[in-house]
Amino acid sequence: MRPEVACVPVGVAAGLATASLVPVLAGLAAVGPAGRALRRRAERAAAERGAAAVGALCVTLAGDLRAGRPPHAALADAVDSAGWAHMPELASAAGLLCSAARFGGDVPQALRAASGRNEGTRGLAAVAACWQVAVDGGAGLAAALDRVAAALRAEADQRDDLRAQLAGPRSTAVLLALLPLFGVVLGAGLGADPSRVLLHTLPGLVCLALGVALEWGGLAWTARIIRVAEGGRPKPPGSARLGGRRAS
Q1: What residues contact residue 196 under an 8 Å CB cut-off, 6+ apart?
Q2: What distance in Å separates the CA atoms of residue 60 and residue 142, rounded to the nearest whole number?
Q3: What CA–CA distance (Å, rounded) separates 158 from 226?
Q4: How far apart are the first and last CA of the chain?
Q5: Residue ranges of the Type II secretion system protein GspF domain (predicted)?
Q6: What secondary structure, in 3-state letters, does the chain show?
Q7: Distance (Å, whole) CA 226 – CA 220
Q8: CA–CA distance, 171 with 222 (Å, rounded to integer)
Q9: Tens-digit pLDDT string for the chain (248 aa)
C-alpha cells in the first residue's frame, strides 16, 4: 500500500469523531497531493544517491587507471563493485555501461545514453566527454575523472549548504501552517466546541473553506519561494566546471 493512502483512514477516523463527512472528503482529496509530494521527495533522494554513486565511480575508475588497468575493464569492474545493478535508479545505466565496456561497444555513447536515464546519472555526460577526449586526443583520463568527481562533490556540498540555510524558513512555514489546528485544540480545551461550529454550521463551513484556501495558498507560495531559492532544475553535474576543459 502506498503511504499516501493513509490519508483516507485518517479522514474516516476524524469524520467518525466529529460526525461529519467533511474530514472524509478532505482525506480523499489529500491522497493526490500527498502522493505527488512523496514521489518528488523520493525522486530527489534517488537523484542525490545517483550523483554520489557517479562521483564514487569516477574516483574508483581514476585509481584503477593509474594502477595500469585498461579503461574498458576498469569501467566494468568499477560498476560491478559499486553494486549499481542492485540499485533501482542505476540498474539500467549499469547494464548499458557493462555491455559497452565488456563487448567492445561505444563507451562514450553508452555513457551519454546512461546520463539521460534519470537526474542522478547526468554526471555521466561529463564522464563521456572526458572519455572521448582521452581516446581522441590522448589526454589523461584519470585526471579528467578526478575533476568530474571534484565537481560533483562541490555541487553536493553546495546543495547541502543551501538545504541547511532553507531549513529555518521551512520549519517556520510548517509551524505557521499548524497554528490553526492548535487554535482548534485550544478552543476545545477551553470548553468551546469549534469542531461543531466549523463542520455543522453554514458560517463555520464558509470560514473553514476560506481558511483552507488561504492555508493552501500560503504553503504553495512558500514552496515556490523555496524552489526559486534552490535554483529550479539543477544543471548537469560538473557541466559548468568542465565545459571549458572539454573545449580545450
Answers
A1: 18, 204
A2: 10
A3: 15
A4: 52
A5: 60-185
A6: CCHHHHHHHHHHHHHHHHCCCHHHHHHHHHHHHHHHHHHHHHHHHHHHHHHHHHHHHHHHHHHHHHCCCCHHHHHHHHHHHHCHHHCCCCHHHHHHHHHHHHCCCCHHHHHHHHHCCCHHHCCHHHHHHHHHHHHHHCCCHHHHHHHHHHHHHHHHHHHHHHHHHHHHHHHHHHHHHHHHHHHHHHHHHCCCCHHHHHHHCHHHHHHHHHHHHHHHHHHHHHHHHHHHHHCCCCCCCCHHHHHHHHHC
A7: 10
A8: 11
A9: 688 889 899 989 988 988 889 999 998 998 998 899 899 889 889 999 999 999 999 999 999 988 888 888 999 999 998 889 888 889 989 999 999 988 888 899 999 999 988 888 999 999 999 998 887 655 588 889 999 999 999 999 998 898 888 888 888 888 888 888 888 888 888 888 888 888 889 998 999 999 989 888 888 888 888 888 776 544 444 443 444 444 33
Residue in the structure block whose three cell numbers are 517556520: 172
Q: Where do we find the cell 500527498?
A: 34
